[in-house]
Design brief:
The complex is a heterodimer. Chain A is an alpha/beta fold. Helix content of chain A is about 35%, strand content about 10%. Chain A has one domain: Aldolase class I (TIM Barrel), CATH 3.20.20. In chain A, strand 2, helix 4 and strand 3 form a beta-alpha-beta unit. Classes of the chains: A alpha/beta, B mainly alpha.
Amino acid sequence: MDALKGKQTDTTAPDKEWKFSEILADHKTRDRWEKVRQYFFLRESTYDMSNRCNIKCEGCYYFEGDKQFARENKDPEAWRELMRAEKERGITYVVLAGAEPSMAPELCEVCYQEMPLGAIASNGLKFIPESIQYKIHISAWGNDETSFKIRNAKNMLGRQIENYKGDPRAVFVYTFTRDNIDQVFEVAAKIAEHGCQLTFNMFSAPVGYDGSLRHTADSLDKTRKAMIDLLLKYPRNVLFSYYNAVAHTHRSGLHDLYACSYPRMNPSTDIGLGRSFRQYRTDLSWNREVACCVPDTDCVDCRHYASGSAVVTARLFRHAGDPDTFKAWLDYVDTYLAIWVMGYDKGDNLCSHLVAPPGHEVF
Amino acid sequence: MSTETDVEKITLRIAQIMIDELKLEDVTPETFDPEIDLIDEVGIDSMDLATVALVLRDEYAIRIDEDDYPKLKNIRLLSEYIDNKLKNRS
């Protein structure tokens, strides 16, 4: 497939120095730019809601490191106070994560009452009340056989779909490991059959992880092809773009490609994520030294969808060098907003081939 | 060689670009305090600054490195930064 070979710059004028106004002269590009820039006000932080989970998955980030041992603060008023303080310091978006937020729905409810934009990372086995209008990211790690093997949960996909079919909050997040690439086709078919939405994540090894899920060059290539195949096969169900595939299956991880701006890898506290991002534990404490979207990930291997959503998006300037690269970036941001923001509808991708990250090759 | 007037002109132009691009209200280029902290007091963040940097790239044909954003805390520092880049080019 030609589209999988990729190209680095606009072939009509590869050496031209483009003005931003020239790039925006294309009306589709300008319209998309005006659409996505309305969301530049989003400032995120993340929160562990509970140290309980109803399953135990191999390679789970929550149960790496010492955050799992933090005391649970179950007082809704303490959470309300925290959310108000977060608003005061400029946070406009919350991600409720570890271990399993559906185990603490009363706390999620308080967060939603105080902060109306956000997402919840869930395994989807326990329904989260509809009164909480956050996006809900439902994790899928393979077909039911694999889920039983590495998550010890039976009929997992069927139960997840039963809970969330027809729910506009729900986005299934399929995490590619080295071992489950072929299984994505049956999982995607089932998700699409029920009219649900799907996006992709990459297993990124926790620090010290030496198991069989870690990606290799071959598995990255194979994953990229699977992502593109499914994007083409289910364009209404799959929230993704060619550039998402490039950014998350590149031989280099996100930090090498884009210079991660989360505090853990970014010492600057002057502006952006380095200034505002915090990752709270269940006892409502936080530690700048370990603050990132998925703590305890090995940064060299990080290809997380959550990380990319912030890190790729933040690199606006370097993507505005030519029309193709800018369109690829717009597709990425459009995808990220559709996955993370309630009510945001993804447009058709502007770019239908692989574009290299600025300063890098396409693979 | 640039003069104080050059920097003043750049300052006014940056203020106008910020007002237009970031849709700031109740301020004109003339009343935009060049010393006001853009991050702490105006509420500008890295995405806003990148947007302004792209328009400035078009206008002055200079590149504002992403690593330099944290240093550019107000319009005066931004205009001096641009003025220096223009001087170094000529």
